[in-house]
Design a protein that fits this description.
alpha/beta, Aspartate Aminotransferase, domain 2, five-stranded mixed beta sheet, 14 helices, 12 strands, about 35% helix, binds pyridoxal-5'-phosphate
Length: about 375
């Protein structure tokens, strides 16, 4: 089955008993047992729920993995994955990782002595150099937020294998439609499904896929023990989102390319960050490991003052955090998503005050271009 067909016919489709073509929302906490210890596959909905199970099955297929897991948010998914490690272990992470992941490592998991190093993983030699005896995993985001830096997944898998590390990839920005990290040797792929997979700004959720039985067993134990599971209604919403993921990503890609071309021609815009551009440092690797470049663009308008004006003047770009929805969103990383990162670290990363981040939606591209044009005037 090819990707587009998998999104419609993959996983568990519909309901055998009634012929319903959509998986029912099993809004239930417990299940009648036919005898003591003799259940029909479901006992208690933290452990397993049929609607959640259907979602977990389809995401595993989309990522070419074995087993999927659904969590109450992207952060719940990331936290649960980090529960695989012990106190004293060390994780090497992409330096411009999602702000919430940065906060989790530096303000929460540090209290449990889970150690970390932030490294520019777009340089494999820097990754190698940061590995210690205690290192247990590489945690990669590619493309990153908001500078769209690209890390070579095949290289990371090589390094991980050599040092006996788990390779974990946050695939939120690329989606399984454009990029399948497990195919390049990753062990764990995860998503904030709040973004492209849900796609309509109406659900908060996280997904994880693994491709070994051993990891699946460990993660299921953690999912059930920690209990940060996704509810049946939200699981259903994600399955609904997945059905249109391919066509949404195609539409977003087409709009993004047109918007980038417009930005390139605008005199007030400098430093456009988009991996689809040949001059982007990671372009070649992005083209090798992903079949599309996604709908995220960042660009510099030179000053925080103009950036704020643009954000106030736009009509079709909603001023909001988050990304990956049908509606275009616009934000100012330095003041919003990355405000919790100390100013000096922000400067090191290149997140200037004039940097605007756009998540391109599926509106008419001419309206989007006209809107940005008038806002930049
Ligand atoms: C949003 C996001 C997260 C966190 O997900 P939530 O669903 O908001 O908890 C993690 N990683 C990336 C790349 C994200 O964009």
């Amino acid at each position: 089955m090819r990707a587009k067909t998998k999104m419609i016919h993959g996983g568990i489709t519909g309901d055998e008993q009634t012929g319903a073509v959509s998986v029912p929302v099993y809004q239930v906490s417990t299940y009648k047992q036919d005898g003591v210890g003799n259940h029909r596959g479901f006992e208690y909905s933290r452990t397993g729920n049929p609607t959640r199970h259907a979602l977990e099955t389809v995401i595993a297929e989309l990522e070419n993995g074995e087993v999927g897991f659904a969590f109450g948010s992207g952060m719940a998914a990331i936290t649960s994955v980090m529960m695989l490690f012990d106190a004293g272990d060390h994780v090497v992470m992409t330096d411009d990782v999602y702000g919430g992941s940065y906060r989790l490592m530096t303000k929460v998991l540090n209290r449990y002595n889970l150690d970390h190093s932030f490294v520019d993983t777009s340089y494999p030699e820097k990754v190698e150099a940061s590995i210690t005896e205690k290192t247990k995993a590489l945690y990669i985001e590619t493309p990153t937020n908001p500078l769209l830096k690209i890390t070579d997944l095949e290289k990371m898998a090589e390094i991980a294998k050599k040092h006996d590390l788990l390779l974990i990839v946050d695939n939120t920005f690329a989606t399984p439609y454009w990029q399948q990290p497990l195919d390049f040797g990753a062990d764990i792929v995860l998503h904030s499904a709040t973004k492209y997979i849900g796609g309509h700004s109406d659900v908060v959720a996280g997904l994880v896929v693994v491709n070994s039985d051993e990891l699946a067993e460990q993660l299921h134990f953690i999912q059930n023990s920690v209990g940060a599971v996704l509810g049946p209604q939200d699981s259903w919403l994600l399955m609904r989102g997945i059905k249109t993921l391919a066509i949404r990503m195609e539409a977003i890609e087409a709009n993004t390319q047109k918007l980038v071309a417009f930005l390139q021609s605008h005199e007030k815009v400098s430093n456009i960050y988009y991996p689809g551009l040949e001059e982007h440092r990671g372009h070649e690797i992005a083209a090798k490991q992903a079949s599309g470049h996604g709908g995220m663009i960042s660009f510099d308008v030179g000053s925080g003052e103009l950036a704020e004006k643009v954000l106030q003047r736009v009509k079709y770009f909603t001023l909001a955090e988050s990304l990956g929805a049908v509606e275009s969103l616009i934000s100012l990383p330095a003041k919003m998503t990355h405000a919790s990162i100390p100013a000096d670290r922000r400067a090191d990363l290149g997140i200037t005050d004039g940097l605007i981040r756009v998540s391109v939606g599926i509106e008419d591209h001419e309206d989007l271009i006209e809107d940005l044009k008038q806002a930049l005037e």
